[in-house]
Amino acid sequence: MAAPFGDRAHTIRRHVRSLEPISLEAVMRHPPPDFILAGAPKCGTTAIYKTLQLHKDLYLPGIKEPHYFAFEYSGRRPVVSLEAYDRLYRNAAESQLRGDGSVMYLSSEEAIPAIVRRCPEVKAIASVRNPIDMFISWHNQCVKNLDEDLLEPELAWRAQADRAAGKRLSGLCHDPRALQYRIICSVGAQVRRLFEIVPPQQRLVLVYEDLQENPRISYKRIVDFLGVHDDGRADFLRENVYSRPKSITAARLTRSVREHPFLKNIRSQLKPFLNRHGIYAVEWLFARNLKPVDKPALSEDFRMELIGEFRDDIALLEELLERDFSDWRKSGKLDAQAEQSVYQSRG
Questions:
Q1: Which end of the chain lies in a sparser environment, N or C, as judged by fewer CB atoms within 10 Å?
Q2: Model pLDDT for residues 151-172, shown as the tens digit of each residue
């Protein structure tokens, strides 16, 4: 196993081996991350991450979701060594806070405890939304990633038990845990676990609807929470829109480029440099193979079933955040305007 979290001697040895100059501040500074954008997925995290990358006092690497600490999500960990993880932040200025945007940390039982052991002062940002809307979007993301081969959300929902037992999985599925939609979308239980681990002054929970309806207020909450200068941004950058692959063959090719061991190693080393210069080759290929599609319409019976499934979890989230989410319990109807909203930067 890698050297213990926070091992300063390991930091010094690494710098000596690479012949990089080292400062006293670098030795004394705790290891990354300073803050995490822990998830949940499909809750505006991409928009938040891309927007925070523009802030001069923050450093968020080109690899948005290293997922190093989400050990149980083995299929979603492009960074698998502590040394490689630390290397993501080697270009961060000493004055910049270093952020990690791995959205599976919130649902992971291992990630946040491991991060807190390494960085006791870490700040955690979470974003949550109506779990029924989240399920629809997350299912579609799994389709795009080729982990999911059941294109109808209801069929995928009903396959969860079999998939937990290792059955009915696509040969392209690298991450069966991602198909446990009930667990992934139970944000109330996840926020409760976050509250049990991270003290109040080190955690911030945002609500997806607020990001859309009050982006300026939401942005100010984030920068105030992180303790950095408010640069006045009033909107978030473009977020993912609902889409699916035009060609499965092209999607498989792009995925192979992403995941081939040799190419993956090369990409992990070059990606931070390329991204700093605005070069996102694989992401461009992936996006070129997507086409906008309409969200699937749920039957009324299935919608009511989902409301029943998540009712207690929503109530728990209401208690934790001291906020009324009764609309989530009354209707599982997808908010098309919210889902299709595209954040635009004005700054």
A1: N
A2: 999 999 999 999 999 999 999 9
